[in-house]
């Protein structure tokens, strides 16, 4: 009887080599094919051509999940600094640093191995290490597995922080660090 691979057989690394960046481009393309939505409002072509771009360390992260044994790419996730529109900032505490989670994708053959959770947890860790106070993301209502994952990792639905033209866009946030003041 074959055993299911575990999350421990998944390694996550910052995409830095040319082969890693090519693998990220392929992940992003697979993601957008699956998504079947027009992402031109996000300057998507320029993003692909300029990787790592806004996802570059130390303020961003472009992470690949790979099989620990074969080095096969299993999926990716990206993180970038975010300058919010003033409309969103009006309802937020002053002086916080925000980042945005983007492009979580796991190849179909790698699903069921906790790859998405492993990528998400590592992206949150990177954001905390970079000193961000809050992580934001947008997703589509049809992405039910992703929404369940985000909620299970402490993300809560929030007000829109961008003006996405895509129908069914949902917005989530997760506080990363808060200084508690004793009274």
TrEMBL record:
<dbReference type="GO" id="GO:0016747">
    <property type="term" value="F:acyltransferase activity, transferring groups other than amino-acyl groups"/>
</dbReference>
<protein>
    <recommendedName>
        <fullName>N-acetyltransferase domain-containing protein</fullName>
    </recommendedName>
</protein>
<dbReference type="InterPro" id="IPR016181">
    <property type="entry name" value="Acyl_CoA_acyltransferase"/>
</dbReference>
<feature type="domain" description="N-acetyltransferase">
    <location>
        <begin position="10"/>
        <end position="177"/>
    </location>
</feature>
<dbReference type="InterPro" id="IPR052777">
    <property type="entry name" value="Acetyltransferase_Enz"/>
</dbReference>
<dbReference type="Pfam" id="PF13508">
    <property type="entry name" value="Acetyltransf_7"/>
</dbReference>
<dbReference type="InterPro" id="IPR000182">
    <property type="entry name" value="GNAT_dom"/>
</dbReference>
């Amino acid at each position: 009887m074959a055993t299911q691979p575990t999350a421990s057989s998944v390694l996550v690394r910052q995409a830095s080599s040319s082969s890693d960046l090519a693998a990220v481009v392929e992940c992003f393309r697979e993601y957008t094919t699956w998504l079947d939505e027009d992402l031109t409002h996000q300057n998507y072509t320029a993003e692909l051509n300029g990787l790592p771009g806004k996802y570059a360390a130390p303020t961003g992260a472009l992470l690949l999940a790979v099989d620990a044994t074969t080095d096969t790419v299993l999926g990716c996730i990206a993180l970038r600094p975010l300058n919010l529109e003033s409309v969103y900032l009006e309802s937020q505490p002053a002086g916080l640093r925000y980042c945005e989670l983007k492009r979580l994708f796991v190849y179909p053959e790698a699903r069921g191995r906790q790859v998405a959770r492993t990528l998400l947890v590592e992206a949150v860790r990177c954001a905390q290490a970079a000193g961000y106070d809050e992580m934001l993301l947008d997703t589509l209502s049809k992405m039910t597995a992703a929404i369940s994952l985000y909620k299970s990792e402490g993300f809560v639905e929030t007000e829109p922080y961008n003006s996405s033209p895509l129908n069914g866009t949902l917005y989530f946030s997760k506080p990363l660090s808060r200084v508690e003041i004793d009274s």
